[in-house]
Structure formats: structure tokens, C-alpha cells
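Pilot study result, target chain (244 residues):
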Amino acid sequence: MIMKLKYYQTILFNLILYGSTIAQSTKVYDFMYEVYESKTMGTTEILKIDWERKKIFYSGSTQKNVPLIILNPEVEFLDFQKGTKVKFPNSNQIYKLYGVPSCANQIECKNPDGSKQIFQGRFDLSGDKGTFRCINKDQTVEYLYISYVNSKDLKVLYSSSVNPKWVTLKVMNIDYEPSPLPPYDDIYSFQVKFPNAPEVYKVFTGAYFYKHKKEPPQSKRGFPCVYVKNPDGSIQIFEWINKD
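Predicted structure:
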């Protein structure tokens, strides 16, 4: 938003955990990553990918947040043809991860034995709820979490790379219409404020753009976004990365 980046930087308003080195024992906050799941024969495997596309963590039934080693960083991440080659620490077995051309939120994994499995992104493409991320020019990262069923229970939280602790924002002036399927509402826009701060930010959802027959903002990868107008008139676009 450059949500109070200067005013709030030393208090609550800070941005995600990349100032510290991430080791295997370091806590990995799910909301900071794109999360993909593969469920086979009752077992769930998870891949978490950081915003720079330089870190991948694996979790399975007996392992959690193991950092995978990327063997071909010179190749475009999740290239459709060449793939991203990874291996576990202390192992020589190579796995290949590919983007899926027909589906932006899937990863295909080719295992060392030749078998394949699909990892499904933990988000859908409706674009109005979940965790959204904005990467600023100075490489700081900001997050919004938006949750609601209807206008009465709209909840908005903020976090950042300086301080991953979530801050609950005050929500005001909600523009919405009741959905044809009660108790749901279609929320178009709303205003938010930080605790004990006067500045007001306006957030526009994808539904706002559809209502006004405008092209909704999307990230370079085509994912849904929310559009934030800051108190100084500047605009930030937050890309949807996770439904949780």
C-alpha cells in the first residue's frame, strides 16, 4: 500500500522475513510463499516457493520445510521444456519441476524413477479472498490477507518482509451488493486504516472492475490482484498467491 512504509516502518508496519538467512531450522511462514500440494494414496506432499523464485521448500509425511537445491538456476524457473532441476540435501537423485502451460496454478514433477505427479496451487482464480503480495521496487514485500463471507464479517490483515507479524486493519465504507446466493455478498471496494493512524487506504477487488466493465488488474503471470490506492494517490497492485 506502500502502506505507511515510512510512517509505520519502525512500529507495526513492516514487511516479510527476508532480512534473515533461511536455514532448514528456520520457521517458514506459509503466507509468504506460493504453496502447492500433491495428494497420492493418502499422503500429502507440499512445495513452497519464494517470491524471488530462488528458494523451494519440501514437506512430506516425515519431513518439513526441507530446502531443495536448485541445480540449473540459469534456466527460467519452471520452464515448460527444460524444467527446474532440484535435489534434496545429501542426495544425488534429481527431480524436474515444470510449469503447466494449460494451468497457471499447477506444477508437474518428474521423479527420478520416471513417474510424474501434479502439485496443485493452494488458491483458485476468483481473486477476491486470500493472501495477496506486492513486491516493491526496493525489494521489500507487503502482504494483505482478505477474508469474508459477507460484508459484516470482512476481515483484512497486513504483514511485510520487515515484520511478518499480522496487523489487523480497521475496515470502513464497504461497497457491496448481496449475492444471489445468501449469505454471501459481492464486495467491490472498502477502506482500511492501521491501528492508531489517521491515513486511509482504498482497496478495490476484482469484482469492482467486473461491475464497472473494466479490465481487472492482473499480475505478469495472469493471477488475480487487488488494487490499492494509497493516501498520497499512488497505486499498488497486490497479486493473489494463496487462499489461506
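One observation from the pilot: The longest helix spans residues 206-211. A full batch analysis is planned for the follow-on phase.
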